[in-house]
Structure formats: structure tokens, C-alpha cells
Amino acid sequence: MNRRNFLKSCAAAGALPFLPACFSPKGYVANGKVRLALCGIGCQGLYDLKQCLKFPQLFELVAFCDTDMGAAHTLEALKMFPKVPRFQDFRKMFDKMEKDIDAVLVATPDHSHFPIAMHAMKLGKAVYVEKPLAHSYVECDLLMKAADKYGVVTQLGNQGHSTVKYHQFKEYVETGVVKDVYKVVAHMNNARRWHKWEGRVSRFPGPERIPATLDWDTWLATVAHHDYAKEYMVGEWRAWYDFGSGCMGDWGAHLIDCVHQFLLKGDMPTEVKVLNTKGWNKFVYPMDSTLSFSFPANSKHGDFELEWYEGASNLPPLPPSFVYADSSGDIPKNAANNAAVSKLCPGKEMYQRDGMIWQSLSHKHPLHVVGDYNRKLPDYPAEFCTHYEGFLRAVRGEMETTSPFSVGAPLSQVFALACIAQRLNRGFKFDPGKQEIVGDSEANALLLGPTGDPRKGWEEYYKV
Length: 464
Prior knowledge:
Distance between the termini: 44 Å
Number of strands: 15
Low-confidence stretches: 1-27, 331-341
Largest sheet: 9 strands, mixed
Strand order of the largest sheet: 13-12-11-7-10-9-8-14-15
Structural class: alpha/beta
Order of helices and strands: HEHEHEHEHEHEHEHHHEEEEEEHHEEH
Shape: globular
Strand content: 15-25%
CATH architecture of the largest domain: 2-Layer Sandwich
Helix content: 25-40%
CATH class of the largest domain: Alpha Beta
Number of helices: 13
């Protein structure tokens, strides 16, 4: 039985292929159920929890941790599991429950992913970390090294990297259908949280009274002190350079994940260009932004250009014969159907040197050919395991994750470089070998983090 048919038969039977796993003896679950701690229990964390709950046979929930424990966005999870131990400081959670935890799911604001994941891995715990992996280039590098050193199971939370999109992309590259791609244009054209603040942000907000539910000092984590303000909370942190990774950190993990792994082979760009910014300021991300990343030819790929468009009114030029995809990801068969689709959905177009153009959308939609194409395309494996199930089964030693830190960290480093360019409103040259920005000391300092050196008391997390 060949690989493709084997995967299909496993999926049909409800079974999973047993693949070589890289797990630490400390993290291997001998009794069958993964003892899971959840850091961040509202918003994305609540969504992640509900996805994990689809596989009750694989895990048991042993701890909740949230710096804003008891705030409105945490109540649903607390009501669902009223007896699960609760913590506001992940360090105290590990101090008390280290022996009772096998794995940790991190769904906190971007700036606090790093210390939680690092702490967990040093204790031999498996970690699932929401995208982007961390808030700086250096933090991503350290997490990748820590995962290798401590030998734990890891997964970046870009859920589409376990869907049919992932399996198709991998198959098409391996069989030579997708080849010699020289340019990818990715775009996320939905309104973002910070668009409502256009022209109104000229300083950091606050100070305001800290809510009784909130441990503000722990919320800040490694970032330099800021006064509390509600404009940072419940997802609003994504708008601010100091706490979030903007649109690319949020959506780049869905739109360019397969491109970076299978076409660029994890490479870093040698130049980042800022082609356009609208509504730029020193505190929050631009209203519109167009960036270009150059990847020179090497033994792994030819010359490659990645363009990124974000902003509701910042649409990329589209290829000839282009037909909009609708919100379901289907491409209408003829131009007449295009009249019903008025908005370009988040996605990408990929250009090959042989003239072929591919389009795909969002998190999980497969590749489609733009224009007429009569050649039969190869079959590819069906989705057989969600991102969450894959992580839990990997901790049990049954398979490998599809987006371990060896894959997710370099991808997130591309986002970190993008955030620096957006923050400074200028491009730069980057030396991947030396891991430094060339001839720009201000930009180079931001590789460590958006506020420079870690806050006092948090330095130990930067040692592997």
C-alpha cells in the first residue's frame, strides 16, 4: 500500500499512522491521557480549549492560568471547569504543579508567549504556542534552540498547517507540480482593530486604575514597564508594537506557512523593503502596509520575492484571468459568477517561471490554478488529524507535529523582521548568517525585543 492510500485508509478507519516521534521521556504520557495546563483562558485560549475538548480521550485539564482571572472574557472557561486549579502567574503554577503537568497550551498576548514556553520546556513539558511563536527574532531563535536542547514536543498554533492545504502543498512540491516559484503575493484585506484609532494615537495611553482581577506586573512579562490602560487588553494588545505583532504576525502564519516551509525551506530574507505605509505612527501598526522580502537564489531555491499587502483598501495587482474566490474558498467557473463576489478574501497568489499561477485562501483552503489548465493534477492525502489532536497525540508518542518550533520559529522570525520594518517605517538589509540587520543599529537592537533588553527580573529566560 502506498503512502497516500495508507493515509486515506487510516482516516477512513478513524486510526492514525504511527510516525517516529521526538518526545522527551519527561513528557511521554504512559497512562494515556495528557495532563494539560492552559495559559490564557479567554478569547483564543477559550477557542483552543474547545477544540481540544473534541478529543476527551486524549487529555485531562489540570490547571488554568490567566493574569486577568475572573475578568468577563475568562468566565466561560471557569464555569465549564469550576474545580480546575487557577493561577494568575505561570511561575507559581509551575512551582506548585510541575509534577502534575505534561503539556502546556499558551494562548496569551504575543509578548508573553516566550517566557511561558521557555519556562515549560526547561521543566521538560511539551508546549503548544499560539502564533506568532514569540515577539522578537531573538526570542524565536532561543525557543527553537530550547526545543532542541530539552527534546520536548512542540507545536506552533497555525492550525491550517494540519489541514488539507498542508498535505496538498507538500504533495504538489514533492511531485514537482508546484516548482520554480519566483514570486508570492500574500494579502490580508480585512479591517484590523487599530483601524478605529486612525489619526488618534500620539502617545501611550494611561495610567488608569488596574482592575481587581488583573495581575498587571505579570501581564507585562519581559516588556519594559507601561502604565495600565484598557486599550491594551482583550486583544487590543495586537495593535501596539510593544505588545503585538500586528497583522502579519496574526495572519502570516496562515497565509505563508507552507510557502516558507516547502518553497523557501525555512530561509530568512536578505532584504526587507517598505513599499507603502498609510497612517504610520510610532505606537501602533500602520493602517495599510506593503512589504517586500527578497530571498536570493541558493541551493534550496531560485531567486524569490515575497510581497505582503495588508489593509482594507490596500489591494494587490491581480494576475490576468484572475477570478475572485468566494468566502468558502471556491473559485467560480466563469467570470459571470464573479459579479456576486465583491471583496478579495485573504489569501495569496503564487507565480511560477513556466507561467502557471496558483491561488489559495486563508487557513485551510487548497491551491487552485488561475486560468485555463487541462493537465491532471495529482491526488494528495486527506486531512487525517487536526492541529490540536496532532499535538496531543505527539505528546503521547504516537506521531510528529506538523508545525514544531523547527518549522514555526523561522516562520515567526520573518514576521519579527516585518514588524521592525513597519515600526521604523523603513526597510533594511539582513544578514542571515550573522543574524543581524546591516548598518542600522536602531533596527538591529529591535531583534531582541520591541523595548530592548528584557525587564529586570526576567533576564533568565533569555538563557538556554
